[in-house]
Amino acid sequence: MSLDTIITATFSEPAREASALVLMGGGARTAYQAGVLRAIGTLLSLQRPGPERFPFRILVGTSAGALNAAYLASRACEGLAALEQLARFCTQLRSSHVYKLNLSPWAQASKWAAAFSLSRHARAHGAVLDNTPLVDTLHRIISLPGIEKALQQHVLDALAVTASSYTSGVHWTFCQTREDSRPKAWVRPGRRAEFQPITIEHLMASSAIPFIFPPTALWVDGHREFFGDGSMRQVSPLSPAMHLGATKVLVIGVSQSERFSLANGLPAAPTLGGIAGHAMASVFHDTLQADMEQTLRVNQTLAQLPRDVAQLLPYRSVNVLAIQPSQSLDALAQAHAHELPAATRRALGGLGALKGGGAALASYLLFERGFVQALLDLGEQDAHARRAELLAFFNDAAA
Question: How far apart are CA 39 and CA 381, in angstroms?
Fold first, then answer.
C-alpha cells in the first residue's frame, strides 16, 4: 500500500471505530476462513453472553473470499449466528455445487482421455471447467436484499468485492454502501473503485480463477469489460478497507509464503499439474505482508511522536491482525484428493495434479466433505491458539 493511500484514506478521523474483515482468495481453501470465524463467534459469545451484534462494520472479499464476505453480509442482521451459518454452509458444499466437467462418456474412461478433452474445452471456451453450477448455488444462498437490509439498518457500513479486468488490466474494487455514507471513489495506478450494488455477476467475476473458470462481463464506466479472479494484480489488499474508513482490520488469508515439499526422496521434474499448481499459488500469493509492514511503520512512527504533534498529522493508527494457516494446505489436499468425483480425479490425475507439487492445484478445487472439514478444524484451531490477540482486537479490555 502506498503512503498516499494511507494519507488519503485516513485524512478524516472516523466518527466511531470501524472494524473491517478482509478475506483473501484461494478457491476451496477459503473454508479455512469459515473455521476461523466460527471460533471467533464462539469466543465472543462466551465473553459476552446473550444476543451479539455482527462484529464487523466493513467486509472486503477477493475471489472465493468475496463469496464468504457476501454470504456474511447477507446474514449480518443475524449477528454472531452468521459466522456459524457460514461454517455450516461450507460443510454442505460439494464440487458439484461449484463446477462441472463437460466430458463425453469416452473421455471419462481414462485419465489421459479426460485430460485431453479438458484441454480441448479450455482452448474452445477459455477455461477448463464450467462454473455455471456456482451461479445457482450463489442465487440460493446469498440474499442480495439481505445485504441492502444490513446496510440500511446500520449493521454494516460497506461490502467490497475485488476483480481484475482482462480488458483493461485494471484491478477494480466494487463497493456497496448506503448512499448517505458513500466516500469518494479512489483511483490509483492500476487500481480503481466504483460504487454499485453487488450482484451475483460481481461474485462470479471475482472468483473466476484464471484458466480454470471463464471470465465474467461487468459494466464499468458505462461500458462492458471482462473480469477474472480478484487475486490477480492485487497489489494492495488492505487498501479498500482503509478507504472505506476502517480503524482496525482482521485479515484471514489461505496462502503461505513457502509451500512444503510433498515429494519423497530426490525431487522429480514438475508435472503439468505441478506447474499449474505453482502458477495458482503465485496468483493467490497475496501481498498482505508488505501492506501490513507499511501500516506497522506508520503506526510505530505515530507512537513515537509527541501526542500534540501526532494529532496534527493526516494519519491515524490502524490496528491490523492477520491469521493464516499454520499447516500446509497442499498436504491436506493430497490426503483428501481421493474424495474428488471420479471424472474430476481422472482428469486431474492425467495432469499430475493429485500428488507431489500438483496437489496445490487440487487444493483450490477440492470442495469435498473431508477436505473442507479439515480446513474448518484447522481454522478453529489456529484461532483458538491466538485467543488473546483476537479478544484484544475486538475488545482491548478483554486481552
Answer: 8
25 closest CA partner among 255, 259, 276: 255
Q: Which of 323, 209, 331 is nearest to 259 (CA)?
A: 331
Q: Is the pLDDT of residue 81 over 50?
A: yes
Q: What is the per-residue pLDDT for 111?
A: 58
CA dist 282 and 305 (Å) reads: 39
Cell of 135: 451461479
Q: HEC profile for 373-388?
A: HHHHHHHHHHHHHCHH
Cell 485419465 belongs to 111
CB 291 within 8 Å of CB 238: yes
Q: Give me the helices (H) in the chain, please.
A: 3-9, 31-47, 64-74, 81-92, 111-125, 132-141, 144-152, 200-206, 239-243, 272-284, 288-304, 307-310, 329-336, 342-350, 359-363, 369-385, 387-394
- What are 199's three cell numbers? 450482484
Residue 45's CB is within 10 A of a number of other CB atoms, namely 17
Q: Which helix (H) or strand (E) holds 62?
A: strand 58-62
3-state SS class at 224: strand
Grid coordinates belonging to 326: 499454520
CA distance 369 to 90: 9
Helix axes 64-74, 144-152, angle to 10 degrees: 60
Greater confidence (355 vs 194) lies with 194
Q: In this structure, which amino acid lies at residue 155?
A: V
d(CA 65, CA 34): 10
Residue 175: phi and psi, rounded to 5, are: -120, 135
Q: How buried is residue 341: exposed, middle or buried, by Cβ count under 10 Å (0-12/13-18/19+)? A: middle
> Does 12 have pLDDT greater than 70?
no
Report how far residue 160's alpha carbon sits from residue 85's, in angstroms, rounded to the nearest whole number.
20
pLDDT of residue 4: 47
Burial of 89 from C-beta contacts in 10 A (0-12 / 13-18 / 19+)? middle
Return the closest-CA partner of residue 285 out of 321, 248, 259. 259
- pLDDT beyond 80 at 154: yes
Pairing of β 216-220 and β 223-228: antiparallel
CA-based nearest residue to 234, from 77, 26, 375: 26
Are 248 and 16 a contacting pair, CB within 8 Å? no
